Every structure is written in structure tokens, then in C-alpha cells.
Amino acid sequence: VAMAIFGPAIAMDPNKIDIPAQFAGPSAAHWLGTDNLGRDLFARICIGLRTALITALLVVLIAMVAGLILGVVAGYFGLLVDGAMVILFDIISAFPIYIVIFAIVALYGTGIDKLIFVMALIFIPQFGRMARTQTQSLRGRSFIEAERLPDFLGAAPPADRDQVLGDLARTIAEGMLVHGLVHGDPHPGNFLVVPRSDDAPAR
């Protein structure tokens, strides 16, 4: 990783051809020697590592974002959407990776962008299934159900609305009871209590 990040800054041109220096051993000029065309091996390794690192990061990033979006959509909506996403994940996973690569190369040619697309496509089902499972486990939780109600006090069922109002009333009552203990606490009950004259700060 260090060579991929900092190596290109100190390495020479990896494509510079120097026929007289072909197959040279390690030296001060060529730390790892040269290849059959006299190109510096250290520079070529650094550039290759940087390309591989960037490719891997982009593959993981694209696959993770796409997989999370598809998985959350499948887990949240369920039914037909969930079934369609599961079938899509199974279809992608069923294709051997080399066949997909050969098909993409035959249709669109070679290139690092094609490689990133194919590798990200292969890894999308893994992230999608994990996101789908987690979304399904959280979909029925109470805080998710509460967020689905646009106006909780107005649109909630009477039992739920009474529960919320009852909890709010108890909280205010508790604040009124402890007003004499904690004067400066920003508690709802403190807003309803009129300060006594002896509560004023001394001057």
C-alpha cells in the first residue's frame, strides 16, 4: 500500500525504454533492476500497485453503494419488489465471472473501466443480500413504524395517541414535583411553574 501511494512520486518513468540497460540487476539507478526493454521494474511495480489499489477501491465502493440501495429497497418494500431483487441477485451470482468478462470484452473491448464494471457487478449480490436481511429485521421495529406516520398525534390510532399524551402529562407532572430541587433544569414541568419571590437570585 505504501509503495502504491508514495512509490510513483519517487519512481522514474515506468515506460522509458533503455535497451543497453536491459536485464540489469539492482543498482542505485534501478532499485529492482530492469526488464527485457530496459524499463525500471520498481517504477512499473509502483504504478501497477497503484492501478490495482484504485481499481479495488472503486469496485468495492460501486458494489457496496449499488448493493445497499437494492438491498434496502428489497427489504423495505417486500413482496413483489423483494422477489424481483432476489431473482436478480441469483441471476448475477449464477454467471461464472470469466464468462461475463469474456462477454464484456467481446462486446465492448478491453479497458480498466470494463473490468471495474464487471467486478462490481459480481460483488453487488453480496452487499445486497446483507442489506436486505438487515432491513427486514428492522422493518417491523417500533421506531420505524412511528416514522411511517406523517402526523403522529393527528393520524395515530386513539390508543397510541392517548399513550403519548399520557406519557407527556406524567413527564410534566414529574417536572413540577422536582421544581424545588432543580431550578435551572430545562424540563417541561419547569415552564408551567411560576417562580416564587424568594426564588429570585440574590443581588
Folded structure, characterized:
- With 203 residues, the chain is mainly α.
- The chain has eight helices and no strands.
- The protein has helices spanning 2-10, 41-77, 79-94, 97-108, 112-139, 142-147, 152-155, 158-177.
- Helix 3 runs antiparallel to helix 5 and helix 4 (97-108) crosses helix 5.
- The longest helix has 37 residues, at 41-77.
- The model is unreliable at 179-194 (pLDDT under 50).
Largest sheet: none
Radius of gyration, Cα only, in angstroms? 32 Å
- Which structural class do the helices and strands define? mainly alpha
Q: Helices and strands, in N-to-C order? A: HHHHHHHH
Q: How would you state the average pLDDT, rounded?
A: 76
Strand content: under 5%
**DSSP, total strands:** 0
Low-confidence stretches: 179-194
Number of helices: 8
In whole angstroms, the N-to-C terminal distance is 66 Å
Question: What characteristic shape results from the CA principal axes?
Answer: elongated
Residues in helices, as a percent range: 55-70%
